[in-house]
Write a structure and sequence with these properties.
Blueprint: H1 10-17, H2 40-57, H3 61-71, H4 91-104, H5 109-154
Helix pairs in contact: 2-3, 4-5
Length: 157
């Protein structure tokens, strides 16, 4: 007979004794679905899709809009004349041309914002590349001056 009080079961006693360890509880075996059987979620989705498709064919405007939003491209091809961008400083002229195209109604404000982002990114990349070239040139000149100073210090007077 155990020395447990009547209101504490053996399982509770193990939990008290092993309070720092989680005692794993056995779970009932799960049913395994055969690979050939359809998944419930996929069948529900496909039946919902079919119902929506039938409603769109029958003239339901909201269903038709739902399907067309997913089929048609969201963006359109735009063609505007932009000046070339050879240096990062050319970004101002490019942004001015984008603003003019927006004012003339050739592109929407959202398209102008997207183009502006592209111009800004390209200008930043070009600026970084120009700075890296200038830094490489300065480091090369510094090495040349350092070599000349070393040669001059070794020279006997």
């Amino acid at each position: 007979m155990s020395s447990l009080s009547p209101d504490i079961s053996k399982r509770d006693a193990r939990a008290v004794v092993h309070s720092r360890k989680a005692i794993p509880v056995a779970k009932p075996a799960q049913k395994i679905r055969p690979p050939s059987s359809p998944r419930p979620f996929r069948t529900e989705v496909s039946s919902s899709y079919r119902r929506g498709y039938e409603q769109a064919k029958a003239g339901n405007v909201s269903m038709l809009k739902f399907f067309l939003e997913r089929i048609l491209p969201r963006d359109r091809l735009i063609q505007i004349e932009l000046p070339p961008m050879e240096h990062a400083s050319d970004a101002a002229g490019l942004l001015g041309a984008i603003i003019d195209a927006t004012g003339r109604g050739q592109i929407t404000p959202n398209e102008a914002a997207a183009l502006g982002h592209v111009v800004e990114t390209r200008a930043r990349i070009m600026n970084d590349a120009e700075i890296n070239l200038r830094l490489d040139d300065l480091e090369k000149r510094q090495r040349e001056v350092q070599d000349l100073l070393e040669q001059w210090s070794k020279k006997e007077w």
